[in-house]
UniProtKB/TrEMBL annotation:
Domain of life of the source: Bacteria
Disordered: region residues: 186-210
Pfam families: RP-C_C
Polar residues composition bias: residue spans: 186-195
Native source organism of the sequence: Paracoccus acridae
Name of the protein described by the UniProt record: Replication initiation protein
All copies of domain Plasmid replication protein C C-terminal, residue ranges: 226-325
Matches recorded under InterPro entries: RepC_C
Length: 334
């Protein structure tokens, strides 16, 4: 029934017996018989069943935590790579840039991440986050000193209009605008086939306008649209007006874990929508969980539905953002 050889079956039986999960009762000659009351008895498994269920849940949680941490490291790696590319162009001889390059080169490879303990992986993620933010800080400092706009950072000129629909509705922007590039109909965009494609898409194509959506909407306004839980994490990283695109991605991935969304659902959203679309989708989903009219019961199922709608060209995230803005206005008016 198990499609195992006799040798493998005996080996498994021995291991279960050593673990106290199985008792082997045999006659003097080693034979087993139902009539003689001998055979394999699983009372050990039955008695410890609740403990084994708890252990399985614990291991499942640890595995998902590890997947989440590796995903966070990938986010830092991707953002730091872009920041260092720009730093090389403007300050290649700066000792700080070289130190960051050396620290980045010392990061463990993806294969080593799988072998790290959960504590070690968490510590490395924190270090990677700190290095990425330091690189972004240096990039911003150089931007101010050279008075040159660096593409990894938002423009200092931001729309501060209180009319969200005017600044965010893609229909009011010209063809090829930053908002249309990020939030336009997916049927007009190339399909992103893998996470690596999504990462490489940062260099050009539909995802080239990496954080222009943040420039158009404004970090403070996007912060106001986020759920209280997401705002809690964002507030711990920077003041609302100082938030970067990287902060929103980091927070979205953290909420994926906390909402119990399966890693595959987030991975599918990332592959389909790219980092921009997946991040905003998570912000919308999280903010609508407690919607008084249609609360979200299954965040993972909802995210998968958003991904399907995106691939079919039916997902209107800009309309959802406008709807969240109207809801916030009504709540503040009460």
């Amino acid at each position: 029934m198990l499609a195992l050889s006799e040798a493998r079956l005996r080996a498994h039986t021995a291991r279960l017996e050593q673990a106290g999960l199985l008792e082997r009762r045999t006659a003097a000659n080693g034979s087993r018989s139902r009539h003689a009351g001998t055979g394999l008895f699983f009372s050990g498994v039955i008695n410890r069943f609740s403990d084994l269920l708890a252990l399985d849940a614990q291991l499942t949680t640890a595995r998902r935590e590890a997947i989440y941490l590796r995903g966070q490291r990938s986010t830092h790696w991707r953002c730091l790579r872009r920041a260092l590319e720009q730093l090389r162009n403007v300050a290649s001889q700066d000792a700080r840039v070289q130190a960051m390059e050396d620290a980045w080169a010392a990061w463990p490879g993806a294969d080593r991440l799988h072998a790290m303990t959960l504590d070690a992986l968490a510590a490395h993620e924190r270090e990677a986050d700190a290095l990425t933010r330091a690189a972004l800080d240096l990039l911003e400092t150089l931007q101010k000193s050279t008075d040159r706009p660096l593409e990894n950072e938002r423009s200092p000129l931001q729309d501060t209009s209180e009319d969200f629909s005017l600044s965010c509705d893609a229909r009011t922007e010209g063809r090829g605008s930053a908002v249309e590039v990020v939030f336009g109909q997916p049927s007009r965009q190339p399909t992103v086939s893998s996470r690596q494609d999504a990462e490489d898409g940062c260099k050009g194509g539909p995802n080239a306008a990496r954080s222009e959506w943040l420039t158009k909407v404004g970090p403070e306004r996007l912060f106001r649209l986020a759920s209280p839980e997401m705002q809690f994490y964002l507030s711990g990283r920077a003041d609302p007006e100082r938030l970067r695109f990287h902060d929103f991605v980091w927070t979205a991935e953290r909420r994926v874990l906390e909402l119990g969304i399966h890693p595959s659902a987030w991975s599918d959203a990332f592959k389909a929508m790219g980092v921009d679309g997946a991040t905003v989708a998570m912000l919308i989903l999280d903010a609508r969980r407690d919607d008084p009219v249609a609360p979200i019961i299954s965040p993972g199922g909802y995210l998968r539905g958003m991904t399907r709608a995106w691939l079919q060209g039916h997902l209107n995230m800009m309309g959802s953002l406008i709807g969240l803005s109207e809801r916030r206005r009504r709540e503040e008016a009460l």
